Amino acid sequence: MLIKICPNLDFSDATKNYLLAMENLASAARNGDHAVIADIQTLETLSELNDLGLSARALFKTLKRKWTQLSSLESIVSKKIIAGEFNEIKKIKNQHGEEIHVPISMFDSRELSQKTKLILEDVGDELIYQLITDWFLKKKKGINNFSNLYNCNSVHGGGQRTGFVYKTIERKERCLTLCIVDTDKKYPTCDFGPTAEKVREAHISGTPLNQPFYLEVHEVENLIPISIYRLTYAKHPNDSALKAAYESLEFLEENSAIKFFDSKKGVSCLQINLTATDERRRDYWSPLVDTIHTKKDCNHKVCNQASCKNQMIKNWPKPAETKAEITAIRDGEQFEFNISPWLSNEWERIGQKILNWCLRYDSIST
To answer: Does the global pTM surpass 0.85?
Structure first.
């Protein structure tokens, strides 16, 4: 995160011992855990403050030399920490976004200055979020050298245990924490699923050092652009099952229904047939199923089997290969793929959030 040291701190006042906090912030900057900045005068004072260790003074001297470059990072985030003489942690909103005012004494503990914890339901999904953040920096901020601008400590939530993991960290640790969860929405007006609901219940309102973030889609796989799914399909042109699955995704993308599609399980007959208990889900998916021109395993309009598991829309059968395509895109020189307008909006929302919480600059050698 961007951490800005408040100007006009009196480092000569022996009754206000800022030294340990400054040492810890210097360490965070040196290690590339956060982006620490200050005004020129403050950096000048810190670089010449004999009570600080040699490495901390050298670090602040380097920050002063790179002041123009590093201070420009304020323009790419909408949230930052202001470390100063405050009595309590407080969130302040202004025309530029949000500031979290943190008493400088809280940085006496290394806990708060360690890298942000990013809790994900499955830590294996980190790859997708990295792609989104890379895209956000390149396409929305015009930054091409983006690989070293964000950093975090990814934490495995464990699916439905994510709420418990978030609650434990929030209550027992004093660190910056962002928790991203699927909403498990199955249609636009659907309520939160159990995992997102447990995270919402676990969150202590008014604790700006921690934040839950809810995806506006069924699951993280819904955030993968159809153009990347197409790369997987193109490698198996004779696979009729994959062709049917891909054509279904294309149709759902055109109707924005891909936001709520369960790519792991597909859509089964029992979810939309005469026995379906969730009428809103049935009303949303039934006409989509009717329109998709692929072979159906059942006729949901007459089926009255409460246990009918016949697939009406196939699941995506090659998730591992699709993730491999994402890795190839991130590792390659050509960072180009198409993205739909609705997904662009969601990626921008996610990319900004991750950058706000995980901003850093390169580890600084002095």
So the answer is: yes
Beginning with the edge strand found earlier in the chain, give each strand of the sheet holding 153-156 in spatial order. Answer: 153-156, 117-120, 177-181, 210-214
**For 39-72, how does the pLDDT look when each residue is reduced to its tens digit (9 = 90+)?**
999 999 999 999 899 999 999 999 999 999 898 9
- 343, burial (CB in 10 Å: exposed 0-12, middle 13-18, buried 19+): buried
Question: Does position 338 have pLDDT exceeding 90, yes or no?
Answer: no
Residue that the structure tokens 């620490």 belong to: 36
Q: If residue 267 lies in a helix (H) or strand (E), which one and from where to where?
A: strand 267-268
Amino acid code (one letter) for 361: Y
Q: What would the mean pLDDT of 217-241 be, rounded to a whole number? A: 95
Burial readout 200-213 (b: 16 or more C-beta within 10 A, e: otherwise): eebbeeeebbbbbb
d(CA 242, CA 9): 63
Nearest to 322 by CA among 179, 241, 253, 221: 221
Q: Token pair of 195, please?
A: 């995992």
Cα 341 to Cα 213, 253, 345, 347, distances in angstroms: 21, 11, 6, 10
8 Å CB contact between 86 and 103: yes
pLDDT value for 332: 78
Q: At 120, which amino acid appears?
A: L
State how far the alpha carbon of 94 is from the alpha carbons of 73, 91, 97, 212, 284, in Å: 17, 10, 5, 21, 40
What angle do the packed helices 226-234 and 319-331 form, to 10 degrees? 110
Tokens of 24: 């810890």
**pLDDT, position 148:** 81
**What's the pLDDT score for residue 293?**
67
Half-sphere exposure of residue 339, counting CA atoms within 13 Å on the CB side?
18
Residue, of 144 and 155, whose pLDDT is higher: 155
Q: How far apart are CA 262 and CA 316, in angstroms?
A: 9
Q: Name the band, by pLDDT with cuts 50, 70 and 90, for residue 365.
A: low
